[in-house]
């Protein structure tokens, strides 16, 4: 869900290899086409309440409603990121390790955090966090 809301790379570009007609518009061969993942992943038809953080969207019973190219944080097809699966596993491992040992609280309201789109997506200002050790029960 984090990668949907804030993809590390906010856009991908491809060059049309042949003349293509999309919804009545001619895309000539050689045209550079840009897909803004940041906005694609906020399509209300695919993701109801698109700005809401809802990890349950990706539970098996819910993710079947996401079209094949409706969620592509690492691009898709033959030119997709070769490290996609590794990155996905690494993100899950790091997040689980952190959340197992710490509680994290943002000190900033989410609507006050403005993303800046460059090569990589990043916040306009540092995000202030409160991180506390989680008390772990020992058996």
Automatic annotation (TrEMBL):
<keyword id="KW-0503">Monooxygenase</keyword>
<keyword id="KW-0479">Metal-binding</keyword>
<comment type="function">
    <text>May be involved in the metabolism of insect hormones and in the breakdown of synthetic insecticides.</text>
</comment>
<protein>
    <submittedName>
        <fullName>Cytochrome P450 4c3</fullName>
    </submittedName>
</protein>
<dbReference type="InterPro" id="IPR001128">
    <property type="entry name" value="Cyt_P450"/>
</dbReference>
<feature type="binding site" description="axial binding residue">
    <location>
        <position position="81"/>
    </location>
    <ligand>
        <name>heme</name>
    </ligand>
</feature>
<keyword id="KW-0408">Iron</keyword>
<dbReference type="GO" id="GO:0005506">
    <property type="term" value="F:iron ion binding"/>
</dbReference>
<comment type="similarity">
    <text>Belongs to the cytochrome P450 family.</text>
</comment>
<keyword id="KW-0349">Heme</keyword>
<dbReference type="GO" id="GO:0016705">
    <property type="term" value="F:oxidoreductase activity, acting on paired donors, with incorporation or reduction of molecular oxygen"/>
</dbReference>
<dbReference type="InterPro" id="IPR036396">
    <property type="entry name" value="Cyt_P450_sf"/>
</dbReference>
<dbReference type="GO" id="GO:0020037">
    <property type="term" value="F:heme binding"/>
</dbReference>
<dbReference type="GO" id="GO:0004497">
    <property type="term" value="F:monooxygenase activity"/>
</dbReference>
<dbReference type="InterPro" id="IPR002403">
    <property type="entry name" value="Cyt_P450_E_grp-IV"/>
</dbReference>
<dbReference type="InterPro" id="IPR017972">
    <property type="entry name" value="Cyt_P450_CS"/>
</dbReference>
<dbReference type="InterPro" id="IPR050196">
    <property type="entry name" value="Cytochrome_P450_Monoox"/>
</dbReference>
<dbReference type="Pfam" id="PF00067">
    <property type="entry name" value="p450"/>
</dbReference>
<keyword id="KW-0560">Oxidoreductase</keyword>
<dbReference type="GO" id="GO:0005789">
    <property type="term" value="C:endoplasmic reticulum membrane"/>
</dbReference>
């Amino acid at each position: 869900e984090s990668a949907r809301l804030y993809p590390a790379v906010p856009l991908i570009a491809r060059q049309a290899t042949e003349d293509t007609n999309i919804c009545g518009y001619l895309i000539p061969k050689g045209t550079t086409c840009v897909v803004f993942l940041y906005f694609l992943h906020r399509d209300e038809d695919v993701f109801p309440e698109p700005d809401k953080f809802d990890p349950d969207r990706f539970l098996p019973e819910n993710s079947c409603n996401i079209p094949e190219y409706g969620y592509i944080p690492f691009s898709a097809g033959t030119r997709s990121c070769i490290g996609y699966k590794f990155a996905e596993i690494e993100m899950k491992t790091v997040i689980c390790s952190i959340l197992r040992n710490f509680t994290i609280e943002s000190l900033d309201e989410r609507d006050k955090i403005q993303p800046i789109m460059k090569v990589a997506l990043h916040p306009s200002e540092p995000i202030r966090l409160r991180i506390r050790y989680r008390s772990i029960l020992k058996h």
